[in-house]
Structures are given as structure tokens and as C-alpha cells.
Amino acid sequence: MSQNNLYPIFLKPESLQFLIVGGGNVGLEKLTFLLKSSPNAKVNLIGKSIGEGILQLAAQHDHVFLQERSFNQHDLIGVNVLVLATENNSINRSIHKMAKARGVLVNVADTPDLCDFYMGSIVTKGDLKIGISTNGMSPTLAKRMRQMLEEVLPDDLHQLILNLNRYRNSLKGDFQSKVKALNSITKKLIA
Q: Closest by alpha carbon to 107, among 16, 27, 9, 44?
């Protein structure tokens, strides 16, 4: 039986520099996904040709900068996270090699063996965010799970989170006593 050994983390894209290479449909999909979850992400997108969808999306976000030209190795300076979406496997592999030499985290569209991370499906309800991964094996299943959770989870979860945060902040004592008090209250959620 296979095991998913990925370690889920939640990045703060507004404090990192993202680079997407590819101005076609795959680049649009990756940019859309990133901005849906993190509208203030700092993104540079480079593509020989940039599609209309990307132009429209970038126009709605002040932190997205487009450059219609070929990739240059100097484009990696200052980049923390790279998403390769050129639809050309040899170009993706070449840029991947340059990025890894600089210690940049890389996602290569539809090439799991070259990915440091996957862009899984995300469910967002206010401050609640749930990441879904199939270890890169079935993005379609992850999408369906997202759709199901979006339907099942109530829209007012944000208020519950705010109330629990206020309660947590009012608690006195050490870490263990706070955890015990919060566990006591939230246990009722699954009863």
C-alpha cells in the first residue's frame, strides 16, 4: 500500500516572491489557483506569449507583474517559489535545473518527479483552509473532494473560529490547561 509522505504547510505568498514561467492555459490555471487562495501574492509571470485570460486576471491584482518574453536565468534572482508551466518538457527541465542550483522551490506542471511541492485542492471557509492532496496522483479526485467539502461545510464557520479565538485569548494558565479547555469545548463539534 502506498503512503503519502508529503508534509502540508501553509505559505504566506505575500511575503515570498513567486515566478510563473508560461503564459498559456497552464500558466493561467496556476496563476488563478494561487490568486484564488492568496489574492495578495507577489507574482512575476514570464511567457513568450501571454494569453488574454492572464492579462485580465493580472489587471485585477496589483502584485502580479507580466513580462512577454523568453525566460532568462537572471529571472531567478530573488525568487523563492517557481512554477513552470511552459507546456514544453525540455524547457521546464532546463529551468528546473537552474532553479534547483539556486535553492528555489519548484513545481513543474504535470511532472510530479520534478516537483518539490504540489498545488493541491483547497477549501476555504473564512479563516478555515483545508488542503487536499492525492500525492500528485489524481488531481481530479482532489478537486471532487474540495467540491464536496465546500458543499458540506457551513458558510458561518468563520464566526465559530472568531469565537474560539476570543475564548482562547481569555484563558489563563499554561499551554496544557488552555489546550484542555479548548479540547473540552470543541469535542462537542464531533458529537
A: 27
